[in-house]
Design a protein that fits this description.
Blueprint lengths: L3 E6 L5 E3 L2 E4 L5 E6 L8 E3 L2 E4 L5 E5 L2 E2 L2 E3 L2 E4 L5 E5 L3 E8 L2 E4 L5 E21 L7 E17 L8 E3 L4 E16 L9 E5 L5 E6 L9 E10 L5 E5 L3 E6 L5 E6 L5 E7 L26
Parallel strand pairs: 1-4, 2-5, 3-6, 4-7, 5-9, 6-10, 7-11, 8-12, 9-12, 10-13, 11-14, 12-14, 13-14, 14-15, 15-16, 15-17, 17-24
Antiparallel strand pairs: 17-20, 18-19, 18-22, 20-21, 22-23
Length: about 300
């Protein structure tokens, strides 16, 4: 038991892509990254990983930093199996982008921070423990770290769920995108409009000007943050509803309020500004009631 599809041990700057990796035995691992010297700055792209053994893991991260995982698919079917596991050791600044992580057994968790200190980000991904007793994220015995989930949902777009064992430490941030567009009611774009966002404690999240196309660059906002300490104490901070303000170059102001539990595309429509011509009279002006005919 315990076979590994690909193992990176104290090795850096590798490029691993376009593999179909399958393990069948107990404790199998699709990809394992670690080694006492750390494995750093590796790129793992476009791999399909399937495990079917008991307590198997799709990807196991132990020691390493700045590794980038893009467009990988992980499916585990064995009992107590894990799609993405962070084990003994420490890792930092590892990114998982457009990743699909699914566990199908009733007792399996999709992502587990088993132990150690790990900082990682999962972005634009699906993380889904399909079993009734499984969690999308389970924090088992972590000693610390920060875990950012940006635009991460289950298979049907539902919010992720998580479990947290007493004594485990770390911080979970759940983050969503905001796209915003400003125009006028005559269907023209509204450049140079200021769009800003404030959370529910009046903290400024962003303030951006629209471009010539009426859009601001995509922004992120924090839905909630949960931090647990070693005594089992938990601090949960929720930042919705957010207030979004828009001001045109003509000083018209618009406001929207949203519960940021998903991505949002906001549209602000201003009244078109009508320029009234300025007429100046130059002496001598004609007397009142004078009618002048223009024959030109």
């Amino acid at each position: 038991g315990g076979g590994k599809g690909i193992e990176i041990t104290s090795s850096s700057f590798n490029f691993i892509s376009d593999n179909a990796i399958t393990t069948f035995d107990a404790n199998g691992e699709g990809i394992r990254i670690g080694g006492s010297g750390g494995s750093n700055s590796n790129k793992i792209f476009n791999n399909n990983i399937n495990t079917s053994g008991t307590t198997a893991e799709g990807i196991r991260m132990r020691i390493g930093s700045s590794n980038i995982f893009i467009n990988n698919s992980i499916v585990t079917s064995g009992s107590r199996s894990t799609g993405l596991a962070f084990g003994t050791g420490h890792s930092n600044n590892n990114s998982f982008i457009t990743t699909i992580i699914k566990t199908t057994h009733a007792t399996s968790n999709a992502t587990v921070v088993e132990t150690g200190f790990h900082n990682f980000t999962i972005t634009d991904s699906i993380v889904n423990a399909l079993g009734a007793a499984g969690f999308d994220l389970f924090v088992e015995s972590a000693t610390g770290g920060e875990w950012n989930f940006t635009n991460v949902t289950g298979s049907s777009g539902e919010s992720i769920d998580f479990g947290w064992r007493v004594g485990a430490k770390g911080t979970l941030n759940v983050i969503w995108y905001v796209d915003a567009y400003a125009n006028y009611s005559n269907s023209t774009d509204a450049p140079d409009a200021n769009i800003s966002a404030f959370n529910n404690i009046n903290g400024l999240q962003f303030s951006k000007l629209t471009g010539q196309d009426g859009r601001i660059p995509r922004q992120t906002v924090l839905e909630y943050k949960i931090t647990n300490d070693s005594s089992g104490g938990s601090v949960s901070t929720y930042y919705s509803n957010y207030t979004f303000n828009a001001r045109s170059i003509y000083d018209e102001s618009l406001t929207q309020s949203w519960n940021m539990t998903t991505n949002r595309f906001l549209i602000f429509t201003f009244n078109p500004y009508v320029i009234v011509p300025l007429i100046n009279f130059v002496d001598p002006t004609p007397p009142n009631a004078t009618i002048t005919r223009n024959n030109s």
